[in-house]
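Anyone up for a design puzzle?
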C-alpha cells in the first residue's frame, strides 16, 4: 500500500459516522477490498464481503499476531500507559498457532455448551433479580439497570470476583468506555491491578470458579500457562464478554421496541427467542470490526494483491448484510431461518464465549418480553445517543416498563456454581 495514506478514507470516519448504516451500505456497494487509514494514520485494507471475510478468518496466511507486521504501532495506538498496554495489545485474540491452539485448548474446556447449560439457572436468577428491582418504576434506564449489570455479574461470578468487590469492577468498566483518555488509562491500570490481586487470592485459596480452574491448569500442567498469559486471558474474557453482551441486550431491546409486531410475536412464541437472538446478532451485531489481521505473505483477495506484512481489517457489519449471502439483508426478520452470520467470527478465533452470550441473550429477552409485555421507549429513537467505537453501544435506553407480570420468567431450577 502507498506510504502516503492521507487521501485514503478513514476507518474512524466510518465507525464514528452519525449514520453508520449508510456508511456501511456505501462500503458494501463499492469494491470488495478497500485501502483505508487506520486510527493512527497507517494504512489498512478493509475487507467488506462475506466470502472474503471468511477467507481472512480461516486462511493461515492471515495472522492475528500484531508482532508479525511492520506498519502499525498498536501499543501507541491504544494510548494506554506502558505498564498496562501489553495486556491489552497482546490479548488472547492476538496469538497465532501453535501458542493460540495450546491456550485455546486449555481454556475452551471451561466454556463448553455443557458448562454453560449448568450456568443457566444462575443467569436466570440474576435476570429475575434485576427485573424485580425495576418492576413498579415508572421509567428506568435499561442499559444501566439491566444490559450493563447482567453480563458483568455473570462474568465476575464466573471468574470468581467476590460479590463485595463487584461494584468496583463496575466502576472501571464504566471508565474503560468513557470518552476521556485519562479515565480510560486509570480504569485499565485498576483493572490489571485487580486481576493480578485476584489471581494471587485464588492461588492461596482456590474456589469453585473459572480463575481457580485456570490456575489449576497452570499448576498441573507444568506452567503451561504463564503469569502473563493467565492475566491476559482473564482480561480477554472480561473485556470480550462484557461490552459485547451489553450491546446485544441494549441494541436488541431497542430493536424489539421499534419493531413491536415482531416483539409481540416473540412474546406469544418464546421458543422462537434463540432464532431471534441470531438475527439480532446478524442485523446489529456488537462487533462491527474484527481483531486486526496481517498478511504473512502476498495474498490475492477480492481482486487485490495485498503485500506481505500489511494490516487487514474485516468488517463484520458489512459481511452480515452482504446481499450475496443474505436475502433482503437490511430487513430485520427475527424468524430468519438461513442465518450463518459472522457476529462471532469464524475459524480458530471463533468467539470463545458464544454459547454463554447466546444463553444470556436468550434468558434476558425471554425475561423482558414476558415480564414487561408493554415495555415501551420513554423517548423518541432520535433522542438516543450511541457511543461510537468498534463496539457501538447505546449510552442510555430510557424505557417505561408498564404493568409487570409477577415472578420468575424461567424454569424453577436450583442455581449451580460455575464448576
Ligand atoms: C454478543 C456477545 C459477543 C459477541 C458479539 C462476541 C464477538 C466476538 C468476535 C467477533 C470474536 C472474534 C474477533 C476476531 O478475531 O476478529 C470474539 C472472540 C472472543 N470472544 Fe467474544 N463475543 C461475545 C461475547 C463473549 C463472551 C460472553 C465472552 C467470554 C465470556 C467472550 C470472549 C471472547 C474471547 C476470549 C475471544 C477470543 C477468542 C480467540 O481469539 O480464540 N465473548 N468474540
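Challenge accepted. My sequence:
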Amino acid at each position: 500500500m502507498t506510504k502516503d495514506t492521507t487521501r485514503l478514507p478513514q476507518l474512524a470516519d466510518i465507525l464514528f459516522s452519525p449514520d453508520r448504516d449508510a456508511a456501511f451500505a456505501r462500503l458494501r456497494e463499492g469494491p470488495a477490498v478497500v485501502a483505508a487509514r487506520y486510527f493512527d494514520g497507517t494504512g489498512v485494507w478493509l475487507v467488506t464481503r462475506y466470502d472474503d471475510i471468511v477467507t481472512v478468518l480461516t486462511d493461515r496466511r492471515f495472522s492475528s499476531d500484531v508482532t508479525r507486521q511492520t506498519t502499525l504501532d498498536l501499543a501507541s495506538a491504544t494510548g494506554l500507559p506502558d505498564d498496562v498496554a501489553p495486556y491489552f495489545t497482546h490479548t488472547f485474540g492476538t496469538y497465532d498457532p501453535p501458542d493460540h491452539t495450546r491456550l485455546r485448548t486449555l481454556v475452551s474446556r471451561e466454556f463448553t455448551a455443557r458448562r454453560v447449560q449448568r450456568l443457566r439457572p444462575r443467569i436466570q436468577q440474576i435476570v429475575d433479580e434485576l427485573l424485580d428491582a425495576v418492576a413498579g418504576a415508572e421509567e428506568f434506564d435499561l442499559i444501566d439497570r439491566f444490559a450493563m449489570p447482567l453480563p458483568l455479574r455473570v462474568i465476575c461470578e464466573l471468574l470468581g470476583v467476590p460479590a463485595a468487590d463487584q461494584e468496583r469492577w463496575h466502576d472501571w468498566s464504566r471508565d474503560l468506555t468513557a470518552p476521556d483518555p485519562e479515565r480510560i488509562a486509570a480504569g485499565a491500570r485498576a483493572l490489571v491491578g485487580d486481576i493480578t490481586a485476584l489471581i494471587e487470592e485464588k492461588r492461596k485459596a482456590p474456589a469453585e470458579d473459572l480463575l481457580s480452574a485456570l490456575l489449576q491448569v497452570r499448576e498441573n500442567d507444568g506452567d503451561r500457562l504463564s503469569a502473563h498469559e493467565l492475566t491476559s486471558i482473564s482480561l480477554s474474557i472480561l473485556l470480550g464478554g462484557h461490552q459485547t453482551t451489553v450491546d446485544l441486550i441494549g441494541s436488541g431491546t431497542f430493536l424489539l421496541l421499534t419493531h413491536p409486531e415482531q416483539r409481540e410475536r416473540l412474546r406469544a412464541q418464546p421458543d422462537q427467542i434463540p432464532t431471534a437472538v441470531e438475527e439480532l446478532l446478524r442485523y446489529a451485531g456488537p462487533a462491527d470490526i474484527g481483531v486486526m489481521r496481517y498478511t504473512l505473505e502476498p495474498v490475492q483477495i477480492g481482486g487485490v494483491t495485498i503485500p506481505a506484512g500489511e494490516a487487514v481489517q474485516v468488517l463484520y457489519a458489512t459481511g452480515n448484510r452482504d446481499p450475496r449471502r443474505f436475502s433482503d439483508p437490511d430487513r430485520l426478520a427475527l424468524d430468519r431461518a438461513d442465518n450463518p452470520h459472522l457476529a462471532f467470527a469464524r475459524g480458530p478465533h471463533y468467539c470463545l464465549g458464544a454459547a454463554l452470550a447466546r444463553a444470556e441473550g436468550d434468558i434476558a429477552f425471554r425475561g423482558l418480553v414476558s415480564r414487561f409485555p408493554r415495555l415501551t421507549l420513554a423517548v423518541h429513537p432520535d433522542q438516543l445517543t450511541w457511543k461510537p467505537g468498534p463496539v457501538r453501544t447505546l449510552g442510555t435506553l430510557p424505557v417505561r416498563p408498564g404493568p409487570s407480570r409477577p415472578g420468575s420468567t424461567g424454569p424453577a431450577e436450583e442455581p449451580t456454581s460455575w464448576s
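A detail worth pointing out: The longest helix spans residues 227-258.
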